[in-house]
UniProtKB/TrEMBL annotation:
Protein family per UniProt: Belongs to the class-I pyridoxal-phosphate-dependent aminotransferase family. Alanine aminotransferase subfamily.
Record-level GO BP terms: photorespiration
Protein name (database record): Aminotransferase class I/classII large domain-containing protein
The keyword Transferase is assigned to this record: yes
InterPro entries per the UniProt record, alphabetical: ALAT1/2-like, Aminotransferase_I/II_large, PyrdxlP-dep_Trfase, PyrdxlP-dep_Trfase_major, PyrdxlP-dep_Trfase_small
Pathways involved: Photosynthesis; C4 acid pathway
Cofactor(s) annotated in UniProt: pyridoxal 5'-phosphate
Gene Ontology annotations for the cellular component aspect, listed alphabetically: peroxisome
Residues in Aminotransferase class I/classII large domain copies: 84-471
Length: 505
């Protein structure tokens, strides 16, 4: 009898290739331990509310009223909800064709897309067209839509930064393309060397690859756990993640200019993953969008380079991961291509409408003089200031540990320390059939309950090992978490080192 369609042997081979470390072996083991009663600190994913971050009051009030519009007719509604929340709820309900239970346009509510365009115009100093903005179920769904449009088969390559967020490697595998890596340089605070990027593309093309813009800074170094690299015939796009995930760096204007020139010269689409643009923890390099830098550079680049930018309500001081609100904006994309993207988006009928309203509230925030403004500013500033403190506590904590070194988290929500594993630990891991940093992270999980992601899930140079953790645990809990990590790490190193004084780098 021939296998059935959902028998493992007959599945789509691209599905089998997908690896997603953020919810991989470590997460599954952590979930098992939690069921057994062990306290687990899930630092494997940027999920702020799951780690105790409180929702902002005003957007929740607005969406609550939109979800239960009958409350607006209650004569006592003003005793519970502030007047500006009531007004906002009526505004967003007026933009729908039947409330939150009705489908919207497949691109999202026109009124919210207009608000996104106005936000982009204020941020960048250049107008944006609402017709080139699509609202999506989180930024991830938008990334998948665009990669699905770009990738025609395994011969198509996407440049992705290494270390990279595994959304990209997983999606590229799912759609049958090839990931082309470019390395970020750890000793330069995860910066980009444009010469290494050029070498990566030249190497790819020598193998018959054409480069696509998927913020992939490919260096001529070996990579662990990313065997799909260098298999494509056409590099078509480049991905940049700014601020970086998992590395936490912020790209300078000079770096962005180099990237934009490179993409223009190589005829690549630039995919700008800018979901952490509100998460900045230093003053030297504020967030500046790739779009703004592109327009500042002027023609011909500014009116020819194809650019798609992504944003979401899941990050920043909002942290509304479960609401699934996001958008992408297209610049210099041909109208016929936009029509095709719209056609494919229509298959899903509509992005989630509550998520769209959260996007509207993010891009069209309260203004001075509004009733709820002071509370909103107090809440949002409090979250960002606490994240800045936590970034410093975590960086200093890692750097106090034996054989651990960590760059400061300039932005985003993660630390990505390098763990210098002794040869005996590497050999112990291999005897168990484990990648060495997976072995280390499993030991950490069992000993402390801290659930991280091994660096091999993001890509890294051969023989170099990392882990990624969020900086999201509560500020008051952070010292104890870092003390627990230090105790485990020092005992681990004591067990596996042949002698003291092992090099930190």
């Amino acid at each position: 009898m021939s296998p059935k369609a959902l028998d493992y042997e007959s599945l789509n081979e691209n599905v089998k290739k997908v690896q997603y470390a953020v919810r991989g072996e470590l997460y599954l083991r952590a979930s098992e331990l939690e069921k057994e009663g062990k306290k687990i600190i899930f630092t494997n994913v940027g999920n702020p509310h799951a780690l105790g971050q409180k929702p902002l009051s005003f957007p929740r009030q607005v969406v609550a009223l939109c979800q239960a519009p009958f409350l607006l007719d209650d004569p006592n509604v003003g005793l519970i909800f502030p007047a500006d929340a009531i007004a906002k709820a009526k505004h967003y309900l007026s933009l729908t064709s039947g409330g939150l239970g009705a489908y919207s346009d497949s691109r999202g509510l026109p009124g919210v897309r207009k608000e996104v365009a106005e936000f982009i115009g204020r941020r960048d100093g250049y107008p944006s067209d609402p017709e080139l903005i699509f609202l999506t179920d989180g930024a991830s769904k938008g990334v998948m839509q665009i990669l699905n449009t770009i990738i025609r088969g395994e011969g198509d390559g996407i440049l992705v930064p290494v270390p990279q967020y595994p959304l990209y490697s997983a999606t590229i595998s799912l759609f049958g393309g090839s990931l082309v890596p470019y390395y970020l340089e750890e000793t330069a605070n995860w910066g980009l060397d444009i010469n290494n990027l050029r070498e990566s593309v030249a190497h790819a093309r020598s193998k018959g690859i054409t480069v696509s813009i998927a913020h992939a800074f490919c260096l001529n170094n070996k990579i662990t756990n990313l065997d799909i690299f260098w298999n494509s015939e056409a590099v078509r796009a480049m991905v940049i993640i700014n601020p970086g995930n998992p590395t936490g760096q912020c790209l300078s204007v000079a770096n962005l200019r180099e990237i934009l020139r490179f993409c223009y010269q190589e005829n690549l689409v630039l995919l700008g993953d800018e979901v952490y643009q509100q998460n900045i923890y230093q003053d030297e390099r504020p967030f500046i969008s790739a779009r703004k830098v592109m327009y500042d550079m002027g023609p011909p680049l500014s009116n020819e380079l194809e650019l798609v930018s992504f944003h979401t309500v899941s990050k920043g001081y909002w942290g509304e991961c479960g609401q699934r609100g996001g958008y992408f904006e297209m610049t210099n994309i041909p109208p016929k291509t936009v029509d095709e993207i719209y056609k494919v988006a229509s298959i899903s009928l509509s992005p989630t409408v509550p998520g769209q309203i959260f996007v509207g509230l993010m891009v069209n925030p309260l203004k001075p003089g509004d009733i709820s403004y002071d509370q909103f500013i107090r809440e949002s500033k409090g979250i960002l200031e606490s994240l800045r403190k936590r970034a410093r506590i975590m960086t200093d904590g890692f750097n106090s540990c034996r054989n651990v070194v960590c760059n400061f988290t300039e932005g985003a929500m993660y630390s990505f320390p390098q763990i210098r594993l002794p040869p005996k630990a590497i050999e112990a891991a291999r005897r168990l059939g484990k990648v060495p940093d997976v072995f280390y992270c499993l030991k950490l999980l069992e000993a402390t309950g801290i659930s991280t992601v091994p660096g091999s899930g993001f890509g890294q140079k051969e023989g170099v090992f990392h882990l990624r953790t969020t900086i999201l645990p509560a500020e008051e809990e952070m010292p104890a978490i870092m003390a627990s990590f230090k105790k485990f790490n020092d005992e681990f190193m004591e067990q596996y080192e042949d002698h003291r004084g092992y090099s930190r780098m």
